[in-house]
Structure formats: C-alpha cells, structure tokens
Amino acid sequence: MVSGQRCSLVLRGALQRVHAASVGARVVDVTTSWSGAGGRKSLACAGRRSYGHGVVTEGDRATAWSGRVVRGDRGHVRVLGPDGRVVTARIAVPVSDPLEAPCVGDWVTVAGDAGERVVAEVLPRRTLVERAEPGRSSRHQPLAANVDTVAVVVGLDQMPSLEKVERLLVVGWSSGASVHVVLTKSDLAADAADVAEDITTQLGADVLVCSTRTGEGIAEVAALVPAGTTLALVGASGAGKSTLVNTLAGEEVVETSPIRADGRGRHTTVRRELVPVPGGGWVVDTPGLRGVGVTGPDGLEAAFTDVADLAASCRFRDCSHQVEPGCAVRAALDDGSLSLRRYESWRTLQREGLWLRRRADRRLAAEEGRRVRQSTRAQRRLRRERGR
Ligand SMILES: Nc1nc2c(ncn2[C@@H]2O[C@H](COP(=O)(O)OP(=O)(O)OP(=O)(O)O)[C@@H](O)[C@H]2O)c(=O)[nH]1
Ligand SMILES: [Zn+2]
C-alpha cells in the first residue's frame, strides 16, 4: 500500500495546476459566459452559491479555503485542499433543488476546522454534466462540474444504437464541455473502424476507438485530458467506463487512490470520484446512464447541428417541419440529404426536452407559490407579534 504522504505528493502537483485554473475562474466570476469548444454554444455560468447560513459565521468565511470536490455523498463532500489533503465537509443546510448541491468537480470554499468542516460556498460552475433524475421527474441531478471534455463511452461488444449515442451526445453538449465518442472494447469487434466511420458521418461526432485489453487507442483517449483539465465519462452501464478510468489513471494512481483523509479512513473505490491521471488531468466516471433526460435546447442544437442549420433556413421561424411551405428540413428529407432516422431521433429528443422543461416550469411555479405563501404567513405572524 502506498503511503498517504506519496498520495499527497501526487495530488498536490495536480491540485496546484487546477488551483491555478480556478484563480482564473474566480477573477472572471459569476456572470461570465463560457464558449464551448469549436465555437458551438455559449452557456452562462450559474451564480456563486452560499451555503451554511446560520452555521457559518462571517469570521469562518474569512478564514475559509477553497478546494475541489473529489467525491460527493449525501449530506457531505470530500474536498481536496491546497495542501493536497482530502477532507470531509458537511453540507450544513439542505438544498431544495438537487442541482444546487455541490457535486464532484465543484470548487467550494470550506470553513471550520478539524472538529467540523462545512461547505460555505460553491463557486460558479464553468460547465455541468447533469441528467434528469430517474423516474422522469423534471428535476435534474448534477453529475460532474467544471468538466472540459465529455467522453460518450460506447462498448463495441454490442452493435451501438445510434439513437442512444445521440442522446448521450446531447447530454455531453448540454454540459458546455466539448464532446467525443469513445468506442471501447475494439478487441471484441472486427468492424470497429466501420462503426467509428458510421458514427462520424451519421452523427457528426469526433470518434476515438480503444481497447483497455490491447491498449489500442488508449494514448489518444489520454490526450483528451491534458494537464489541468477534467474529462467526464458518460455511457451505459457496462460500456467500460470504470475500466477506462483505471487504465487512464495507470497502475500507480490506482494504487494511490485510497487516499488517507485526516489520517483516518480510506477510499474503498475510485469510482464516481475525480481521479488524477499521470499527465496532470482528472477523470471522473459517472453512474451508468439509462434514462437520460435531455436538459436544454442548447445541447440538442449542438448535437444536431445538421438539423439545426436546416431548421434555421426554413421560411417560417416557428416552422414545425411538418406541413409548412419552404421547410428546409422536409426538403432535405425529400432529397435524402437528411436521413429519416436522424430526423426522428431529433424530434424525439426535442419533444422530450420540451416536456421536461414544461414540467420544470410548472414545478418552479408551484415552489414559488409555496415560498410566497410561507413568507406572507411569516410576515403576518411578525406583524401580530409586534402589535402585541
Ligand atoms: N474485452 C474487453 N472488455 C472490456 C474492455 N473494457 C472493459 N471491458 C469489460 O467490460 C465490463 C464492463 O466494464 P466496466 O468498466 O465495469 O463498465 P462501466 O461502464 O463502468 O459500467 P457501470 O459501472 O455499470 O456503469 C467488464 O467486465 C470489463 O472487464 C475492453 O477494452 N475489452
Ligand atoms: Zn421547417
């Protein structure tokens, strides 16, 4: 077993690099825009969120330090600090929206001491990989924050479904990060190159092919995560994400993953954590995604630039691409330059996104109504008490 000291050294170097990156993020601050790679979409950052009201004093905030969440659990997070140590910090105040909760990859400020540490603030997120919560509720779950690249991991042990890959590409592009498809298990498919070619031409995605068994393409995948950057792996369960994380992390780091925190406790697994890779970057595995909800129109547009470009040249701005004259989408379907499969996949994801957004709007309206009623009741109570 490698000592905590050695782990700290590995992590410290990587942390210094990411800390340097965070300084930039803090200077640019809350309302900056961030442009996705390839000039695809510009996403506004979420604002800085404070936590621990009533728990964290102003004095505590003055001495708080910033670090990166390497692992998120219910009620607390594990935070890598500037000294290379990983500590546990409590999320002192429950958040009503799961998206508000700190997640892996978040930069947070931590207040308190060894007795009790709490998350005082979550710094603005540059990017966020999220999914609709299972059960098709309108709520979204944060999976990984401040990710530079998303790898849509697809196993070649089965014939990939283009629709499933498209759905994951939308999740990837919705995050604001740049996106690649990584086809794993090439050792199990004689036609790996053909599948890659298909995905490139039909989905317009950048595709890498690799195998953790033979080592084919691993260097190319490792190149997706240069020093100071973060790569998130998304994909169905069994696609080979965890194996890829371990391969990218290398023997050395897998061995060093059970980091000692405060001299006690060890990580039992490297999964769903930010894992440092030898080049100085970070890799994060996300839970196997089955019912992935499409979050916003930006990701859909970025994953379907071909359809979005066509739709932009329809005669009517609100063209439904069904019956209207001058519809460029239908024209492309007619002349075969847009496949029916691709069009239908786009329609499905678009409808789903609309449905989720409408539901979210209704939920937000209901929550707002509840808040207003609570506040009115509280004000009445206060007036009554003062009147006594
Ligand atoms: N032949 C072959 N098998 C692989 C390769 N990569 C992963 N596997 C196998 O595929 C299976 C699933 O891999 P995992 O890494 O656990 O898949 P995962 O995507 O993390 O799955 P979840 O944790 O359920 O989300 C395991 O049995 C791996 O050994 C590969 O390159 N070649
Ligand atoms: Zn149209």
UniProtKB/TrEMBL annotation:
Binding residues annotated for GTP, in chain numbering: 184-187, 235-243
Region (Disordered): 369-388
Compositionally biased intervals (Basic residues): 372-388
UniProt cross-references to Pfam families, sorted A to Z: RsgA_GTPase
Entry-linked Gene3D superfamilies: P-loop containing nucleotide triphosphate hydrolases, Probable gtpase engc, domain 3
Cofactor: Zn(2+)
Name this protein carries in UniProt: Small ribosomal subunit biogenesis GTPase RsgA
Taxonomic source organism: Mumia zhuanghuii
Species lineage: Bacteria, Bacillati, Actinomycetota, Actinomycetes, Propionibacteriales
